[in-house]
Records
---
Amino acid sequence: MELLDGKKIATAIKLEIASEVAQMRASGMRAPNLVAILVGNDGASETYVNSKEKNCKEVGFDSSVIRYDAKITEDFLLAKIKEINQDDSIDGLIVQLPLPAHISVAKVVETIDHKKDVDGFHPINIGRMNKNLPCFISATPNGIMMLLDRYKIATAGKHCVVIGRSQIVGSPMSILMSLNAEPGNCTVTLCHSKTPDIKKYTLDADIVIVAIGKKNFLTADMVKNGAVIIDVGMNRENSNETKSGYKLFGDVDFEQVKTKAAYISPVPGGVGLMTIVSLLKNTLSAAKKEYYQ
Ligand code: NAP
């Protein structure tokens, strides 16, 4: 079994990004600039946003977090997004989800200029991804593709089972794995909560990607020997053993499944770190106007 070490790969990619940013600055260009908007004070969202800002600083980006009270109106937020869309000094904009219930996520996502949509959630970016055209790809699926690529995992002709069909992880993941691309070219099965007998599919899978948010869902009896296992799940449980006061668990029963897997990503230390690096990559691409003028 080989660990898909997100920390190692993320560190290497961050060094590459930092070196590119240093070159940009040396040639008189400004550094990439990412703005994050955080509405309300959800603990997990606060952690993610702080981590994104810290990672931006590490690679030499400019970045800032705009914090709003949960009571702001939808109109107020949309007006702020439009203002940022017009600001040429900002390359990437993310609005941290979830949002308070009175604010429409769809409206927010569609108001962000797709050229600054480094989260890859805008319908234009999703559509272009489906057509295998250059675009911003949702950070978690893109991070997984980078992990597969760096570990040179053969995917063409393999059967990939994705469990979970969310707009930000499972659905784009299933499309990316089926595209005529490398990595890609898989035969893909997409399972969700209405799929009966998921084990029937996972037992036949060469690659299993689990993104459902259920601790230890994928057990050893569900996977075949030599499979590649990617665990996206981030299930928090309160704990006295850690400084943060919580412990993270994946969707995979890691200790048991690792005895059968050829490759497996741990939680923490796997996909989560790749997600942040993928966001950094998208922001760099936005600053370089790699996909859109
Ligand atoms: P989500 O929006 O809640 O979607 C969950 C998906 O899982 C849905 O498609 C749901 O099916 C499916 N599902 C739920 N229970 C199931 C079951 N028992 N059997 C089969 N399918 C089931 O979740 P998400 O945003 O994709 O996140 C999934 C997990 O990944 C969470 O733990 C989240 O914290 C984590 N995550 C991690 C990262 C990272 O960077 N590592 C990034 C994003 C998310 P239906 O559609 O039928 O309801």
Note: The chain is about 40% helix and 15% strand.
---
Amino acid sequence: MSEPRPSDDELLTLADAVAARAYAPYSKLLVGCAVLARDGRVIEGVNVENAAYPLGVCAERTAFARAVAEGYRPGDFVVAAITASPCGGCRQWLHEMGVERVVFRNGGRVVAMTTEELLPESFDSSNLG
Ligand code: THU
């Protein structure tokens, strides 16, 4: 028998826990991301900063880069749970990866949105020209 899928709340709890492993000595903002793949696996990411500030990487991107390196592809993802509202660049990543639902904390609230709601009229390879 396969394991039951984690709920959105459980994924957010996983994202909260993994945020403790963030490397964010400059902003001191620890961000975690837990992505549920269609096969039931959860792939986690954290933000990784650098003394050269613009080189830092967001939690969402480390999660998806890790997933792709393990063989996952756009369309393989059901939910991305994030401990903070995703930045503009990460909304583009979430769109590229074709995640069905994005769940995140924003202030005291928990918000669930589609990537289309997060990034309307988005850029992708089909709308050039
Ligand atoms: N951060 C993320 O990890 N994800 C986002 O979507 C927003 C911002 C990180 C990047 C940086 O290490 C810190 O939060 C402060 O901007």
Note: The first helix runs from residue 8 to 19.
